[in-house]
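New to this. Explain the following:
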Amino acid sequence: MLNTIQRTPAVERANKIDPRILLLALGMFALGTDAFVVAGVLPVIARETGVTEGLAGQLVTVFSLTYGLGAPLLAAVTGHWSRNRILVIALGAFCLSNVGSALAPTFGVLLLMRILTGCFAALYAPLAYTTGTTLATPEKRGQALSLVLGGLVIATVLGSPLGTWVGEHFGWRLSFGLVALLAGIAWAALMLCGLPKPVDAATLSLRARLAPIKEPRLLLALSPTLLGNLGLYMVYTYLALLLQQNMHVMAISGLLIVFGLGTATGNWISGVVADRIGAVRPIIGALIGLAIILSTLQFATNSLVGGIPALFLWGLLVPFLNLSQQHRLLSLAPEHANVILALNSSMLYLGIAGGAALGGVALRYVAVTQLGWLGTVCALLALLMLVLSMRVEGKP
């Protein structure tokens, strides 16, 4: 009887997750699908637009570069505007820019659309995280943040392979159309449901957001994120080309699911591992593992027997690098928690942009099967910078 009495309407509401959080997660799912789908349909885009695969890879570069550089800048510029209005406008504009990508008559227009899409993604993602936490009770905020972030994780497992499958069977334009549809559904539902009045919060200037860069030790600590992802995406951006050449298959969406399942598994266990043994050892293990996998990928992907476990392990190691880096950065600079994590996110996307750009340049001189060696060099450089960072912090 006592339990029945205590379950008041207020308690029931507190135990429920606001469905609008799921709509924010759907927007993140669309964003994640958009970020990774180009790698899957890159050969199709290159063939139909009449450009080289290396030039087509710059679609990933401009999106990620705009996202990485634009996130802190746009957040500072729009800091005094209504958060809800910016979030809804950004999601709607993200939808429209993907429609523009699908309808782009030339490669140049498509490149411009990817730049605009990166801007709108850079506006939407941070606001989706903060809005998701305000829609939850204090005891449910961690779960709400996990749900919104889960949109990106699920995009790796399902969104990117689905977008690739659509592109393989119906053309790359419909891949962008799929992203636009997902974002449009989330936008329309949020417009109908509305969002609560945001809690007033201090607005950081661009100078405050970039303040940690003035501290050499923090800049050094951020470098493994940049270099690790530089090596990773130098290969991943052109993975479709590698798999098609080595396995002699045209449809790779199923293989991308394997990579995504590895990423989802790593995302699930990496946080637990970091909590138990600290963040440094998982980062070291991830960088060594990435160096080994990237250097042997050209041989492992000659068959499904070697390719499937290699892709799964590769995907598994990605969260061990990126999530463990977040743990480490928080322990190094708790006073700069929000800013340092935002900069780490920027470094991640700058790494993606740089990897796609350098990979495209490298394809002029080497075969796609040789990109793994360049990625290995970047992973080892990231490991070296991690060791230097630890020495600066005075840790063994």
Q: What stands out?
A: The domain at 18-193 is CATH 1.20.1250.20 (Growth Hormone; Chain: A;). Confidence is low (pLDDT under 50) at residues 1-14.
